[in-house]
Sequence to fold (552 residues):
Amino acid sequence: MKLLEQWITGIIDPYYLRIIILMGINIIIALGLNITTGVTGQLSMGHAGFMSIGAYTSAILTLKLGWPFWLTLLAGAAVAALFGFVIGLPALRLEGDYLAIVTIGFAEIVRVFFLNFEPGGKAVGLSGIPQETSFSLVLIITILVVFFSQRLLSSRIGKAMYAIRENEIAAEACGINTTHLKVLSFVLGAFLGGLGGALYAHYMYYISPQDFDFMRSIEVLNMVVLGGLGSIPGAILGAAILTILPEMLRVVAEYRMLFYGALLVILMIFRPNGLLGDIRLYDLVKPKREKEVKPCRS
Amino acid sequence: MPVLELQGVSQEFGGLRALDGIDMKVEHNTIFGIIGPNGAGKTTLFNVITGIYTPTEGSLIFRDTPIASLSSHKVARLGIGRTFQNIRLFNRLSVLDNVKVAANWNRSAGLLASLLGMPAYVREQKQCSTKAEELITMMGLYEKRREYAQSLSYGEQRRLEIARALASNPCLLLLDEPAAGMNSSEKLELMDLIWKIRDDMQLTILLVEHDMHLVMNICEQIAVLDYGRKIAEGDPEQIKSDPRVIQSYLGVEQ
Fold:
């Protein structure tokens, strides 16, 4: 790991390395939301709330209690997962727009809580968090998350989650405990959100409640929708593009967000199911059927 | 001993009494038809049996187990499979996955076992795949196993729904208007299929259907519903000649 780190910092410009690390963190977070919203179809617009909980938990444990880094990562993810469980419970009764509003409300509560939370530094936030998150660590964790995401989604539990998204009543009639799996999807999504938040806190030196506002939740949702709901390569691509895009758009200076928004609109018009939404390997290799040309009769 | 027994089952929606004191016994290995005019409560009865609704009154006993208050997935796991009047498939899952999802739920491997790919889990998955492939072969869908369910034709979608309902090894199969939208040759194939399922798998079939030709040919026992009440029950000959049934449903010859 040390060698890899030395090698990579030797050959890559620090500015690009920073973008790559943030990209990795975003991929982890987007893969989390992909399980909740992309696969299971539970619209969550408060993912920044889970990131916030993960980030603050791990930062406080590091700064105030001096826990080892790896343990604060796990603790941040676990506490976020616990809140995922709590917020998953209303998901049993609500769906679609109503659930979205509940999750927005949740993230706002978290934000306002940290604005007034003494050990979290209130509005000023927490600074002086040691930078423990390295390229190699993010790389390893990202690979692990991609691997286990893939395992989950191709397992019976993953397929059942897709089934809930496609038709909840039919899923129940097939013996799927939809209650159980909807809560599980929130727990897993929150776990990865919290993990990403904890990595973020230990990379940026500094966190404040503004880092995890409503726009942050929307950004993560954009990554998942842009890539294609329920698709792992999609979430990865979406996270990568939406991390790089704002940087590339620095050339247009103050019109940056304008271009960013316009690109999103254009992409959604031409690929309404997301970039990799309905593409499966099978469709690419499937032998094309010959089109029959029937003669017109007048 | 009957497979399914209903005692005084009533279902109210606000002031509307959709089912009114239904008593019914479905014997093992029979094909049991439920007929009645639109709005008679046939689909409501299916939804009560499968746990989508909890009946306001009465009890349902499925092979010695009371199921009236159980949730839908528990009823399914006990061994009641169903299809829906308006097809409800998992459109963006492959044909094979549609069936596999339903074949999975009397298995033991949990989240961790699936994430780590434990041997027990892998073995279970193999069994599920084999079972699902058998079923879609039986329904003539093997060639299409990798297509998305939404790309199938209407008749194929109906057959896929039956395959999915059979995947969990039910001993009672509920078919809600299986012949709706089919032409006469498809209906004949469907009749053969229903007989084959009943004989090969030794299960009991309860079906709601409007097509009288199909119902009278295939069902051994028929119950007639009207305004939520059961107005008659018997074999096809008895039903055809029952004056109440003729008046409310079959119509009087001029």
